[in-house]
Design brief:
about 500 residues; mainly alpha; about 0% strand
Length: about 500
């Protein structure tokens, strides 16, 4: 790593830590502020925070690498995600913002589910919290692995040193500033990602001589490279687009809907968020296309297609700018890690410590416990990620499906159908998560192939969760007058 690139990265780290200190002074006096920023996020911050925490390194490494290898047919996942994110803003955001406040100011997803379904047994809270903590600890570990490998591949650092640096900066601003720090840093990181994914494709296109020269270069490699349907089946397109179903059940994304300052800000949040997402997704796809043309024309060595954004940044830009662009990848990784850490610590604090150990705990005590829980989850994730060959990455690709199938149908039904019961919700969570696990690990095949190779596991998981939630609810008793009243309040306030 040269001096100029190092200066750019150092400036980025200082900015993140400075935001953490600002948030510490501004919004960590009670648990609602620490976990949800006091429900006072402006729509712009909430929108970019949701987007940045959602996309992670997938936006700058995974998608460009997939398009580089396969062509435009790899972009169907992006289409599904765009549709899913838009539907999430319409179907979940406004009602969840109101309902979590109506249900005695619920600050976590398990907290909301327990209050929504009047679950005095605490079963929903416990099971939902376990799903969140376990999967997000693994998810966080994978993000740290990505950070370590980024430092190793781009800057020549030892893998473990890169991992520790990534974890250290994220823990520092998350521990100190809580949700507001995470959201503000996500906003800055979202802006960096936006600029990077506009700048890199445009500069590369210009270097190649424009779109005509670029398209000619990629078609020389593969005549069908720019065909949306070349080499894919209808089932393959459906599986790719089904990624969009996952949005309804992702705790680190939908918690942003709970934190925006007013339900009236949701339309502005949606416009900002979807505009950001559309531009960045298009830029990500374009990085893969122009990357193939650039490598084909110049012969620059590329060991891993997922590093095409890194290669373009280091080859075409001044070291100071290259440092900024590489910081965009780090920003994408760190924004997701910090969100996952905070959601996990929120569950440990609100759903375990306060619920089962210290119901009379003061606000300052809960904030302290939240910081300790954040540190604990981070340390476990670091330990899991310390082995560079950790197999944990193989699990993280399925976490999106697990969350989407376990929580998505239940969240949607809880907001749009007053008839769903406590037993129905519990059955839906278990059926969704269980189906995904069976689809992934059961020893059977479909046409000689593993089930997950035939159709994405979120599809059967989402279907089974919905059927279980509706079927069990229909068999049980109706909802209570209190739930009826809360539902009516939500509709009136919305």
């Amino acid at each position: 790593m040269n001096f100029e690139t190092g200066v750019s990265l150092a400036a980025y780290f200082v900015l993140m830590l400075g935001i953490g200190l600002y948030a510490w002074k501004k919004s960590t006096s009670n648990v609602s502020e620490f976990m949800l920023g006091g429900r006072q996020l402006p729509p712009s911050v909430a929108a970019l925070s949701a987007g940045a925490s959602d996309m992670s390194g997938w936006m700058l490494m995974g998608l460009p690498g997939a398009v580089y290898l396969a062509g435009l047919n790899a972009a169907w996942i992006a289409v599904g995600l765009l549709i899913g994110a838009w539907a999430n803003y319409l179907l979940v955001a406004p009602r969840l913002r109101v309902y979590t406040e109506v249900t005695d100011d619920a600050v976590t997803i398990p907290d909301y589910l327990e209050k929504r379904f009047e679950d005095t047994s605490r079963n929903i809270r416990v099971i939902a919290s376990l799903v969140i903590v376990i999967f997000f600890t693994l998810y966080t570990s994978a993000g740290l692995v990505a950070g370590g490998k980024l430092f190793e591949a781009s800057f020549g650092f030892d893998y473990r040193l890169g991992l520790v640096v990534t974890a250290g900066v994220v823990m520092a601003y998350t521990l100190v500033g809580g949700f507001l720090a995470v959201s503000l840093t996500d906003f800055v990181q979202g802006c960096i990602m936006f600029a990077a994914l506009v700048l890199v494709p445009i500069v590369t296109l210009n270097d190649l001589g424009g779109w005509t020269a670029t398209s000619d270069a990629v078609r020389a490699v593969n005549p069908d490279y720019l065909g949306w349907l070349s080499g894919v089946t209808a089932l393959g397109v459906i599986s790719s687009m089904a990624w969009g179903l996952g949005y309804f059940g992702q705790p680190h994304i939908i918690v942003r809907f709970m934190a925006v300052r007013s339900v009236k800000d949701i339309p502005a949040m949606r416009r900002i968020g979807m505009s950001w997402m559309f531009v960045t997704v298009v830029g990500s796809v374009m990085c893969g296309i122009v990357g193939l043309a650039f490598i084909t024309r110049t012969g620059v060595p590329l060991g891993d297609p997922e590093t095409i954004f890194i290669v373009l940044s280091q080859t075409l830009f001044h070291p100071y700018i290259a440092g900024f662009l590489l910081a965009a990848i780090l920003a994408a990784i760190m924004s997701t890690i910090s969100s996952q850490l905070l959601v996990s610590s929120s569950s440990l604090t609100e759903d375990f410590y306060k619920t089962f150990l210290r119901s009379e705990a003061s606000q300052s005590e809960l904030v302290l416990v939240g910081r300790i829980a954040t540190l604990a989850v981070a340390l476990v994730a670091i330990a899991l990620a310390f082995d560079r060959s950790s197999s944990i990455l193989s699990l993280v690709g399925n976490a999106w499906a697990g969350f989407g199938a376990a929580f998505g149908p239940v969240i949607l039904l809880s907001l749009h159908w007053r008839g769903i019961t406590r037993s129905g919700a519990l059955a839906g969570i278990i059926a969704g998560a269980g189906t995904v696990l069976i689809w992934l690990y059961a020893p059977f095949t479909i046409g000689g192939e593993a089930p997950t190779a035939v159709i994405y596991e979120i599809i059967p998981g989402f279907i089974m969760s919905t059927l279980a939630a509706v079927g069990v609810s229909k068999l049980g008793k109706g909802v209570s007058p209190k739930v009826e009243e809360q539902f009516d309040q939500m509709l009136a306030l919305k």
